[in-house]
Amino acid sequence: MAKTSGIFNFPPFSSSPSPSPAPSPAPAVDPQPANDPPAAPRVRNDNPRTTSAGFDPEALERGAKALKEIAASPQAKKAFELMKKQEETRQTELSSKMAEFKAMQAQAETERQRVIYDEQKKLAQQQAQIKSQMARYEDELARKRMQACSLLAENEHHRARNQELVKMQEESSIRQEQARRATEEQIQAQRRQTEREKAEIERETIRVRAMAEAEGRAHEAKLAEDVNKRMLVERANAEREKWVSAINTTFEHIGGGLRAILTDQNKLVVAVGGVTALAAGIYTTREGARVVWSYVDRILGQPSLIRESSRGKYPWSGFFSRGLSTLSRGGEKGSKAQNGFGEVILNPSLQKRIQQLAGATANTKSHQAPFRNMLFYGPPGTGKTMAARELARKSGLDYALMTGGDVAPLGSQAVTKIHQLFDWAKKSNRGLLLFIDEADAFLCERNKTYMSEAQRSALNALLFRTGDQSKDIVLALATNRPGDLDSAVSDRIDEVLEFPLPGEEERFKLLKLYLDKYIAKAGARKPGFFSKFFQKQQQQIEIKGLNDDLIREAAAKTDGFSGREVAKLMASVQAAVYGSENCVLDPLLFREVVDYKVAEHQQRRKLAATDGGSGGGGN
């Protein structure tokens, strides 16, 4: 047994199969049987502990010696059986441990996948909730701003128009009252006589007709009463039987289906699973579509700061808008070519300078050179926005219009919106002219005490995006107070253009332009492909005795008017003409409206001067 227990100290031979014992134990074991083939010739080996093949045969020799000793022992068979059982036990333990390890590994992997799925689900839900809240907040802000602006403009317009209409209606009512009194007395007696005769004839006719209709209705009712009763009874019976049969059939089908579902467990499981899967699919589809659409709107949609743009809200909408605008403006090309700058009437030197800038901007874009930023300043209503729009059109650029007053209500979101705006502008293939109206609202001097931290951050964001000259964006700022702009903003301006109030010659051209737009072409269809199908013909205004001398007289009276005030003046003339009896514009009505608007303008200036004086005294 000492030899048998010593055998387990040789691990290299523990895994090898046990040799089968001999049929009868031999008294002695020959280490090298006589029938073995003769040994091969030995190769010279310089290292005595290794063979020519590169390994040490000493361990192999010791193992062979141990095997010979075991085979010579009388307990060899038991030793080999014990070794075999121990090896099988070890293999069984190793297999069970491997199976347990694989089961633990699979359980750990399942737990890890479940935790990852739960975290991703929670993150997606939180992101969807935050995005929906932001979208609702932005929509609410935009809707409130638009409602406030539209209500203010509409109230102001209605007030002015109501005052004019009241005055014209009073005068018109006086003239109509005089004419009515002159003619009413002549026809009053004849009208009374005619009305009396007509009333007698109508009363007689009505009496005869009523008697005949009553007799006919009574006769028809008497004849049709029995038939109607019988038909109603038959129809009611048929309808009752039909509904009873339909209800019985429906309940039979429903009861059979429920009975089949409740009695068959597989059908019940399938029905419940189908309803659950349908509800889950509908909910998942709705929420997924909402998330995808919000992502598409955030990536491809027009930024909320943009109020007007030639690109459209989405990239694909620009093609349709440009095509429709090209068709609708097909007949306006001749008039714009004659004027050269659309409806913008400016000082000749200023208009020439803007045309030069348009040509330079177009050449800059074709040569892939950096664009130059611009500053437009001047009184309100002098054509800064229209000039920027025409500048973008003539230079072949897209344009986008935003207002500086929209930045402050955004608060902490202003910086994000500014970066989104510039990222969106860089996607324009034609280049984009970004026009910021009322730029002093958020680009004012940073050392102002009333400037909030959010406005300061928005200003810094815009300065960061305009630090270098861009090959994609032309920045055009418009303000009534250029001195309030921050020095860093002024440093980024390359061209400064002043828009003064129009002179007498410019006012004359503006009056003729808006006379043609609001009066001469008021009832005509606008030229275009679709206008002939969708616009109704309106009553046209007739112009009598209105010549250039009268228009020049009005231009001289309207000293100090801006281009917007001239347009409102001609709109008031149009309203006065529509308020007249025969829709005719004559010199008397034109002078009356012009004098009224001039007096209103002077009164407004006096009020502004009074407010400015009281404010200055307070300071």
UniProtKB/TrEMBL annotation:
Biased composition (Pro residues): 18-40
Keyword vocabulary terms for this entry: ATP-binding, Coiled coil, Membrane, Mitochondrion, Mitochondrion inner membrane, Mitochondrion nucleoid, Nucleotide-binding
Cellular compartments per GO CC: mitochondrial inner membrane; mitochondrial nucleoid
Compartments (UniProt record): Mitochondrion inner membrane; Mitochondrion matrix, Mitochondrion nucleoid
Residue segments, region Disordered: 1-58
Predominant location: mitochondrion
Pfam annotation, one family: ATAD3_N
Coiled-coil positions: 120-147, 180-241
GO-annotated biological processes: mitochondrion organization
Keyword Lyase: no
InterPro entries, A to Z: AAA+_ATPase, ATAD3_N, ATPase_AAA_core, P-loop_NTPase
KW Membrane (keyword) present: yes
Xref: Gene3D superfamilies: P-loop containing nucleotide triphosphate hydrolases
AAA+ ATPase domain mapped to chain residues: 370-503
GO molecular function, one term: ATP hydrolysis activity
Annotated PANTHER family: ATPASE FAMILY AAA DOMAIN-CONTAINING PROTEIN 3, PUTATIVE ATP-ASE
Name of the protein in question: AAA+ ATPase domain-containing protein
Organism: Centaurea solstitialis (yellow star-thistle)
